[in-house]
Amino acid sequence: MTCPCCSGKPYDNCCQPYHKKEKFPTSAEALMRSRFSAFAIPNGEYLWETTSPGKRKFHNKKSLQEWGEINDWTKLEIVDIPSMNKVEFKAFYTDEDGNPQVHHELSTFKTIQNRWYYVSGIFLD
Fold first, then answer.
1. Which helix (H) or strand (E) holds 33?
2. Helix, strand, or coil (residue 82)
């Protein structure tokens, strides 16, 4: 299957190795794409594990898993990469009531011991 992150690559050659912990994303954009795919699959454990350890107390695996399950994640658009640790994106999805939605965010990431983590996001539009 084609990877949900909209890279155009097969899932097993794109985000799946990250989800299986066979390798780790090497940039904020790669982590962003793999997290979008984790919502689409869904894989709440991966989403929680790639959240900065200091921010995990604000999230839980179950709610991340459920957010992925109740929505149909259809498209990821990378809008801008203003710096090495920031990614602006639009995540398109259909909510549980069948309404099309767009989640527009500027996310901040950081590296800890050579691994990228999601830190926070600012909602746009």
1. helix 28-40
2. strand
Q: Which amino acid is at 113?
A: Q
d(CA 59, CA 50): 11
Residue 87 has pLDDT above 90, yes or no: yes
pLDDT at 19: 98
Angle separating helix axes 28-40 and 61-70, nearest 10 degrees = 70
Is the confidence at residue 69, as pLDDT, over 90? Answer: yes
Q: How far is CA 20 from the centre of its chain?
A: 15
- Domains, the chain: 11-123 (3.10.450.50)
Q: Are 8 and 40 a contacting pair, CB within 8 Å?
A: no
Write down the pTM of the prediction. 0.94
SS3 content of the chain, % helix, strand, coil (to 5): 35, 35, 30
pLDDT at 58 over 90: no
Task: Specify whether the CB–CB gap between 110 and 117 falls below 8 A.
Answer: yes
